[in-house]
Design brief:
- By secondary structure, the chain is of the alpha+beta class.
- The chain folds into five domains: 90 residues, no CATH class; 55 residues, Nucleic acid-binding proteins (OB fold (Dihydrolipoamide Acetyltransferase, E2P)); 59 residues, OB fold (Dihydrolipoamide Acetyltransferase, E2P) (Beta Barrel); 191 residues, Rossmann fold (3-Layer(aba) Sandwich), CATH 3.40.50; 157 residues, no CATH class.
- The protein contains 17 helices and 20 strands.
- The protein has a six-stranded mixed β-sheet with strand order 11-13-14-15-12-16, sandwiched between helices. Strands 3-2-1-4-5 form a five-stranded antiparallel β-sheet, with no helix packed on it. Strands 6-7-8-10-9 form a five-stranded mixed β-barrel.
- A hairpin with a 5-residue loop joins strand 6 and strand 7.
- Helix 3 runs antiparallel to helix 4, helix 9 runs parallel beside helix 10 and helix 12 crosses helix 15.
Length: 580
């Protein structure tokens, strides 16, 4: 067995290749590429060189040299670990860099930066390429507020609505619902983008720069419709209302010099009031069409119109300030259309729902804020050559007087129920020779479809305006004690006539399907349709609420003491339900 001394000698004796090498030279593997500068290692090498190779102490020297190498490597590892820890401590204890918004470069090497509600003129790190900086991008600032990095545009930000675009390119926005406004710069990304009122923009964190544009959606354009082709001839039974509107809108256009000579101001808007179904919306659209046609003739060029059909309840919103915002948007949209050369018509149906009389209550009432906003917008309109405002209502007594005063809504036009001649005229619009008429009826009139249609219309008129017990519909008691009974003909409207004709068509179609051949409209179809229309009461209030019934009759609500619908009994006779 070999002694420990022999094993140590074998372990620490250098290989044959090392023999004869100069002092201080060692392999890269042993020293891992480090230069020999350590004094202790040099002393060991000197001792080895001075010691005889057969000396037993050489193994101890070799072991010492090996231990020095290992200790030196361990020292290097510890130094590296310390350096890494120092770097980590430096990062953890260093102040955070700030992120600002780049607004421009007032002079070379200086950046205009917005940060935390303040502006700074910051130095720019010379190593950065300033040509890549864009207005609205985020920049990195160190503790000395020096720009040390470009982070690009922020991917997120608040969305706000554009009130209007200024001529110098800046954008005015309205902060809802407080109503406060602000002006934004455009970022370089949207410098040349077309921005209009109603669009939305994404704003940077400092609320100084608009970064991105979101065009207004068509669904937010408040039911924007093209002006329909609807000449006055297609509006029946409203000769008096049509005459009043034509005098108000056509005469100023046809005789501008005369109106200017008399210093007569053209009206800004109209109020159409009357029972439902009598053609207020139809008259509003016809007004738009005919006014545009008159302006085309006067100007000698193509002029387009836009019809904004808005229902009053659609403006109402439970959130504070939202209803006022919608009113502003409606008028802003109309003004935008006018700038585009389009004549806008703002038609607000059921106006009493949103423009009702203001109340002196401590609690918030929506009319208290919407009505002043609407008045302010109306005051900004010069005449019907700018924007035409048309209000429609069943209850004009519920609209705030400030809306109806002269200078805002200048014309109040009553749309009444059609009389007998007016009803006949409406029937001729919906029931004409273009429809399939009963062959037997045509033969009775010597093949004249026109004469057959006249017979159908007269049959309808006779049944509709009959004064029989089964046609009694409503009993109205006035404050004077007078009791008036209204029959079916007293509650007729254009909508009812149109529905009667549609029901007659349906009966003829069903009969044609059952018989397997086309069967035209007959007298019985028309008469049965009248009975069915009033029996189902689709357009009449389903309840006995007096306020609902007062919207249907041409009576001043203040003069009515009692309204009693007369409903049919199961046996066919009619009974009276009294309501106050």
């Amino acid at each position: 067995m070999r002694s420990p001394k022999d094993r140590d000698a074998d372990r620490f004796t250098p290989d044959d290749e090392r023999r004869g090498r100069p002092l201080g030279e060692d392999s890269d593997r042993t020293r891992r590429g480090r230069p020999f500068g350590d004094r202790a290692f040099a002393l060991v090498n000197e001792l080895l060189a001075a010691t005889d190779e057969r000396d037993a102490r050489r193994s101890i020297l070799y072991q010492l040299r090996r231990q020095i190498i290992e200790d030196e490597q361990a020292f290097e590892d510890v130094q590296q670990a310390i350096a890494e820890l120092e770097e980590a401590v430096t990062k953890l204890t260093s102040p955070a860099n700030r992120i600002g918004v780049y607004l421009g470069q007032p002079r070379e090497g200086i950046a205009h930066v917005a940060l935390g509600g303040s502006d700074y003129f910051s130095n720019i790190d010379p190593q950065l390429d300033v040509s890549t900086f864009r207005v609205g991008t985020r920049v990195l600032l160190n503790e000395a507020y020096v720009v040390v990095g470009d982070l690009g545009y922020a991917p997120t930000g608040a969305i706000t609505r554009v009130a209007n675009a200024l001529e110098d390119g800046r954008i005015r926005i309205g902060q809802e619902p407080s109503g406060a406004s602000a002006v934004l710069e455009r970022s370089d990304a949207i410098r040349d983008s077309r921005i209009k009122t109603g669009d939305e923009v994404r704003v940077d964190a400092s609320s100084r720069v608009a970064l991105e544009v979101f065009p207004a959606q068509e669904t937010k354009d408040y039911y924007l419709d093209e002006v329909p082709e609807l000449p006055w001839e297609k509006v029946g039974g409203q000769d008096e209302a049509i005459r009043a509107i034509k005098d108000a809108i056509e005469m100023p256009v046809l005789h501008p010099d005369l109106f200017e000579r008399f210093q007569f101001k053209t009206p800004k808007g109209f109020l159409l009031y009357g029972p439902p179904g009598c053609g207020k919306t139809l008259i509003g659209k016809a007004t738009a069409h005919n006014l545009v046609e008159q302006l085309k003739k006067e100007a000698g060029k193509q002029i387009e119109g836009q019809f904004l059909h808005i229902k009053g309840p659609e403006i109402l919103n439970m959130w504070l300030g939202e209803s006022e915002r919608k009113v502003r948007e409606i008028f802003a949209l109309a003004r935008e259309k006018r700038k585009q050369g389009i004549l806008p018509f703002v038609f607000i149906d059921e106006a009493e729902a949103v423009l009702g009389t203001r109340r002196a209550l401590r609690s918030h009432n929506i009319s208290n804020t919407v009505v002043p906003m609407f008045c302010a917008e109306m005051d900004g309109i010069e005449s019907l050559r700018d924007i035409v405002i048309i209000l429609a209502t069943n209850r004009p007594d519920l609209i705030d007087p400030a809306i109806l005063r002269p200078g805002r809504i200048d014309r109040k036009i009553k749309v009444t129920r059609p009389d007998r001649d007016g009803t006949r005229e409406i029937f001729r619009i919906y029931l004409n020779e273009s429809l399939p008429i009963s062959a037997d009826l045509v033969v009775e009139h010597d093949g004249s479809a026109s004469a057959a249609v006249d017979t159908l219309i007269e049959a309808a008129m006779e049944d509709l305006f009959a004064r029989r017990d089964d046609t009694r519909f409503l009993e109205v008691t006035l404050n004077s004690g007078t009791v008036e009974v209204l029959h079916r003909g007293d509650l007729v409207s254009g909508a009812i006539v149109a529905s009667i004709v549609e029901r007659a068509k349906e009966l003829a179609i069903k009969r044609s399907v059952a018989q397997g051949e086309e069967s035209g409209i007959t007298r019985d179809d028309v008469v049965d349709s009248i009975a069915q229309e009033y029996r189902e009461n689709d357009i009449f209030p389903p309840s006995d609420n007096a306020d609902d019934w007062l919207k249907l009759i041409d009576y001043d609500p203040e003069n009515v003491a009692r309204v009693s619908p007369i409903r049919p009994k199961k046996g066919g006779a009619r009974r009276r339900d009294g309501i106050l």
